[in-house]
Structures are given as C-alpha cells and as structure tokens.
Amino acid sequence: MSRRSLTHRTRAGATVSVLACGLLLASAGGAVADRGTGTTDTGGGGTSGGDGISAVVYAYHSPEGGQPMTSSTGNWSPPVCWFEPRYTNDALAKHNEEMEDKGPLEGIDHDTAENRKEETDAHKDKDGMWWERTPVMSPRSCEIGELWIWVDRGDPDPPADAVDPEILAGLAYDRTKLPAPPVDLKPNDDRNVVNLPTKIEFSEPLDRVWTTASLVNAQAGINIAATTVAEPVSLRIDAGTEYAEPSSCTYDLVKAGGGYEVNSEGAGCNITYRKSSGEGTYPMEAQIVWDVTWNPTASPDGEPANGDLPDGLSVTEQAVTVKEIQTVVR
Fold first, then answer.
1. Residues with Cβ < 8 Å from 268, sequence gap 6 or more?
2. Amino acid 5: pLDDT
C-alpha cells in the first residue's frame, strides 16, 4: 500500500487554494438541471477534474416543482467533505502548472507549487490516482488537512473518508425534492362551518420519490451508486387555531391504485372548528412524513442498507374560512 499526501506548507498557501476551490464551485453552480421526474445533473462538473468540483452525478424521480426534503430530526446534515479520485499523476502535474500560471490570487503561490511539483515528480511513471478532498458546499469544510492523497492502482485500502455508497446516499437525501401534500377538504376550505367535522382526502395519489447519486471513474476502477427512496407513510393536519377539537389529527396513508392515499371518511379523528374565522381565515397545515431508506445500487428497488436515513417531511399550508351555520327562525 502506497500513501503520499499533497499538503500545503503554509497557512497562506492553504487559504489561496481554498479560495480557488470556492471560485470554481461558484462557477459550477449553473450546471444543475431541473429536478423533475427522470432528470439528471452532474452536481457541478460531471466527470471532469477541477478543484472542489465533484464528479458525482444525480438522477431524480420526483414531481416538478417539489420542495426540498426536510429532516424530521432537525439535526441531520449531509456529508460536507470526502476524498474522490480525480487525477492521474501527469494530469495533476499539468493542472498544478496551470494554477501556478494564474498567480496567487486565482491559483496557488510559489511555495505551494514547488511542494506539489516535488510530490508529482516522486510519482512520475507510477500507476495510480491522486484522490482529492472535495467539499459539497463550502470550501471551508476542506480547509485543513491533506487536499490530495496518492493511491496505487489496485490498492484495496482507499483514503479515510473516501467517497462510498453511504456518502452518496447522504448526498442524494440532501437533493431529494418532495411534493406538497395534495390535500382536499370536505367541506371546501372556503365553505367550512362551525361544528361540522372536516374530512380529508388527496386530490391525487402520492408516489414514492427517489434520487440516485453515482460516481464512475474508469481510470480509478470506481463504479459506485446509492439510491435514496422516500415513501409517504402518514399525514398530520393542524387546525391552525385553538378553537378546534381536536387541534390536530394524524392519518396513516394507504397504498392503493399504484399510489398512497388518505380518506378520513369514518376516521376516529377529524378536526371540527368550534368558532367562526370571522373576516379572516385559519392557517391549516398539512404535513406528510416520509419513511426514507437507501440502498447501494442505482435502482430504487435494491435491498435497503442498514441504518436508515431520518424520516423526511413535506409541508403545505392553506387558508380555511369557517362560517357560522345559518338557521331560519320561524
């Protein structure tokens, strides 16, 4: 096993390299495609090399105009930094020359360039790849530590924090978009009346949603993928006022007709408003809980891996008008 790291000899050198990383990240932002059903994007850079631009590719099966999935735990965060195979030795040597020619403000300083040249010279004519530390968002997450590590071809022991299916699953989770709850009310949201239970159904069935993240690098012998799958399991309705009994109801979703549905007809819990909304409205909130799993394949039907990701949430709010019941006095 051979390990050689390319580090910066000075703090200033590290900062300049991180600045360059950030500039390239910013320029890559426009590469992301629309996330409708079946679309793909390259995550900013595709399979091309470049400081701070990941070669991870994404494919989506989600509705148009969805909302980013929110973690139910509130404290979950996606992977922020990992090592990814990027350059042959010759390619990195050429890249270093290009970065030095740009000067310290856009590239690297002289001391850093000399350090990199010593490392690439030491690996001349060797068969392997330089793995680069890659940030998903902020370059600051990669500011400290090795930026490149040499890995011999066929070495079964990749760098610590090397990209793997579990990291890809977290990246896919972070990019998953969910549909807003397609809630219909009976009576309609502008015709509700006091003391009448509000029944809930979906205007259309919900389907499961998934995102696949993959990384293919033939030179490094890397071909990995992970698919994160979100399946709707329950619906919670909050009345939006203290003048309702109960103030909230939760319904399990039922799989039917190729999708997931809810119909609260005959349910033991339906919100009943006890006071008119007057000249205003009540902000009723609908929240769907999605059970999220992942598997180390490019298919949503792969065997789920151990250690599920946090449940996901999608939320919508609608204004409900509640009127008094009109009676006729004879």
1. none
2. 57
User: Any residues with CB less than 8 A from the CB of 284 and at least 6 apart, and which?
Assistant: 185, 189, 237, 238, 239, 240, 271, 317, 318, 319, 320
Q: Which of 143, 163, 183 is the last residue of a domain?
A: 163
Q: Are residues 137 and 74 in the same domain?
A: yes
Q: Of 106, 128, 163, which marks where a domain is finished? A: 163
Question: Is a pLDDT exceeding 60 seen at residue 3?
Answer: no
Containing domain of residue 103, as a range? 3-31+48-53+69-163
Q: Which residue has the higher pLDDT, 246 or 327?
A: 246
234 and 118 within one domain: no
- Enter the pTM of the model: 0.81
310 and 280 co-located in one domain:
yes
Give the distance, in angstroms, between the CA of residue 307 and the centroid of all CA atoms in the same chain. Answer: 17
Residue 10 has pLDDT above 50, yes or no: no
pLDDT tens, position by position, 91-123: 989 988 888 888 777 778 888 888 889 999 999
